[in-house]
Amino acid sequence: MKKNINIIIMGPQGSGKGTQARFLAEKYDLQIFETGSILREIAKQDTKTGQKINEIINIKGDIVPWDFMKENILRQKIDQLDKDRGIIFDGTPRILEEAEFWNKKLPSVDRKIDYIFYIDVSKEESMRRISSRKLCKKNAHPLIVGKDLSEEESKCPICGSDVYRREDDAPEKVLNRLQWNEKNMKPVIEYYKQKKMIIRINGERPIEEIKKEILGYIK
Ligand SMILES: [Zn+2]
Questions:
Q1: What digits encode the pLDDT tens for the residues 42-88?
Q2: What pLDDT shows up at residue 57?
Q3: Fewest beta carbons within 10 Å, which of 19, 57, 100, 142?
Q4: Do strands 133-136 and 142-144 pair parallel, antiparallel, or not at all (unpaired)?
Q5: How far is the CA of 137 from the centre of ligand 1 (A)?
Q6: Helix (H, G, I), strand (E, B) or coil at 29
Q7: How many Å lie between the centroid of ligand 1 and the Cα of residue 135?
Q8: Predicted TM-score (pTM) above 0.90
Q9: Burial 37-54 (b: 16+ CB within 10 A, else e)
């Protein structure tokens, strides 16, 4: 069922927002706008911007400065998208300046945000979910400890290759990211609350229940 709607889906890491975004994208034929994967794609390109992004995100492990992001990534990317299809913004905006930017920019490309969902998950639950993630070496199959394999198992149940935990998912790194997010998300949430646009979804429930609740809001 194609729908030309634009949705923002926010939430901390481990909230399952990516899963919900992919589900909605498929259901309504929406284009996924996820800055993390956009940046990783650009970082592979042999261009000036590509090299700079690669240095920031892959070599230094830093966050791309907002002004650079706005001028060199977001403006171009939004213009490249299919005008006849809606967008789902996955984990975007991450800071207040970005929320304000989209508020001005989207009308200039004949779009407006129709729904904003905030999938709320406590810091403890986020930590628990992220630290239970592992990947296999050969095919990067995403695996959940306690569901797909036990803590002691060291082979992928799908392909049999070795499994490991991403360096980024080490507890102290996760805590850092969650704290950065929390600090920056608060003003974004406030901003949309004042515009009466945000819909809070309790994310500490089964995926199917969350899907159903979200679909109930979309007309
Ligand atoms: Zn595997």
A1: 999 999 999 999 999 888 878 899 999 999 999 999 999 999 999 99
A2: 87
A3: 142
A4: antiparallel
A5: 7
A6: coil
A7: 7
A8: no
A9: ebbeebbeeeeeeeeebb
Rg of the chain, C-alpha, whole Å: 18
For residue 55, report the distance from its CA to the centre of ligand 1, in Å.
29
Distance 97 CA to ligand 1 centre (A): 40
What is the distance in A from the centroid of ligand 1 to the CA of 143?
8
Cα–ligand 1 centroid distance for 165 (angstroms): 13
Tell me what pLDDT residue 156 has: 96
Per-residue tokens: 79: 């213009």
For residue 142, how far is its CA from the centre of ligand 1 (angstroms)? 8
Interval between CA 148 and ligand 1 midpoint (Å): 11
Residue 100's contacts (CB-CB under 8 Å, 6 or more residues apart) are 191
Give the residue among 17, 48, 47, 51 at the shortest CA–CA distance from 34. 17
Residue in the structure block whose two tokens are 């290759």: 161
Q: Where are the alpha helices (DSSP H) in 6-108?
A: 17-28, 35-43, 48-53, 66-69, 75-80, 96-108
As given in the structure block, the two tokens for residue 33 are: 């706008």
On whether the CB atoms of residues 143 and 120 are closer than 8 A, the answer is no
Q: State the distance from the centre of ligand 1 to the C-alpha of 170, rounded, in angstroms.
A: 21
CATH 3.40.50.300 fits 6-123+168-217, yes or no: yes
Q: What is the pLDDT of residues 102-157, one digit of tens each?
A: 999 999 999 999 999 999 999 899 998 888 889 999 998 989 999 999 989 999 99
Residue 119: strand pairing partners: 201
